[in-house]
């Protein structure tokens, strides 16, 4: 049975509505430790997988997405009924349903404790859509975690959340950490650190050819894709500068067969992560 | 030596400026058979690889991108000097340099005549960024052509051109054709038609395991990724409906190892096209 907290909210100019809407901006997220999740697909995933503060739903959406509302009830979350105007004022992309969620980023120690075998590191990735697409690809490839370095986009940006298609809530995403801190820690935990860059000495297809037990343990040889691996992906415009490439054990290039200069960030990351996942089967 | 056609253009409200700017809209592209190419990276590629009508450049950009201007001179293209205001009025993304290019789409017969071994087909792909990213990935993977079906986005949309990062000019891109016409023609030319879809009976990794001569020629068995292949990729929101899946010889799924429901269109296409390219080496 659907039940709501308090009476229906009908004033789109209420302070409460403005406060929810303001979570689409970084400064309000930082002040409150909360963020906005818009639309049925993302709200469904955040309710199932992450820490949620409260939901706002229109009568029509409560009916249409009753599975989401009953998941929320099961988890004891407050669900507020609101008019179409109120929900639209909270987010133009709500389709009748928004959640206010609690920022609860994983830590690097959490990730290390899980004994990861595949990690994606985004170094200074600035575009919300690119970052989101890589998080989604990492989830699909079965990565254990994603790390975004200090200079990267805020993953709780609504555009990033949308691009992850729910994957932001599926695997640990660590943020706000310096690249050398991450690479040192993951290397100490036994992962090979591979930078993806067009300048790489190693061709990804060649590494796939020799991946497996025969190549393992020999640090002087080509990296073994079947071994635990952390991939480093650089900024969408300038890639990885020399001082970042030096933090990797090896630099690997995705082979370019046509006239293209490079792949875009998310497609390159997907090809690399799927190559590792294939080698690690 | 840099030389320009006529005097410097200085009036951003001139009819000529408006006419160039209007090419960012579909209707003017259809009326004139021309399209707008913005910014040094894309203009460099269109001058080298495609049919260009004329260029507009600021004095500063002519200096900075003198390689592009001398390429244009070599090809006998008219280069107009224009003020910063004029070029900015033609396109806010020009960075001092725009080209007016001639639409000269390849035909399916051109593609067939080239005896292609790897083709990407986009069925009803609507998002300009997604379509552009797939064209870029197809180029990088060494595909021979890309085909967009009737209901797809206009590839001469400025957002698509930007997302291709020049790849639109590197390989034949056929547009405005019904999906069954393309699949029939490519199958008749000896290509296997594989649809990429999460419902697929075949796992891409399993197909890579068995790709090669041993599997070839046996139509009842799993498709051979080493054989000439046309991949069909569906709309970013609803994928491939049943009547489109039926046009394929086999439906192949990219393995999903985490909690993600799917990959986004461009990353899925990149993983599939790179798998074919690897198997065809």
Automatic annotation (TrEMBL), chains A, B:
Pfam families linked to this entry: MRM3-like_sub_bind, SpoU_methylase
Cellular component terms (Gene Ontology): cytoplasm
GO terms classed as biological process: methylation; RNA processing
Gene3D superfamilies, A to Z: 3.30.1330.30, 3.40.1280.10
GO MF entries: RNA binding; RNA methyltransferase activity
All copies of domain RNA 2-O ribose methyltransferase substrate binding, residue ranges: 36-107
Keywords from the named record: Methyltransferase, Transferase
InterPro entries the record matches: Alpha/beta_knot_MTases, MRM3-like_sub_bind, Ribosomal_eL30-like_sf, rRNA_Methyltransferase, SpoU_MeTrfase, SpoU_subst-bd, tRNA_m1G_MTases_N
Family the UniProt entry places it in: Belongs to the class IV-like SAM-binding methyltransferase superfamily. RNA methyltransferase TrmH family.
PANTHER family reported for this sequence: RRNA METHYLTRANSFERASE 3 (PTHR43191), RRNA METHYLTRANSFERASE 3, MITOCHONDRIAL (PTHR43191:SF2)
Protein name in UniProt: RNA methyltransferase
Protein's organism: Pengzhenrongella frigida
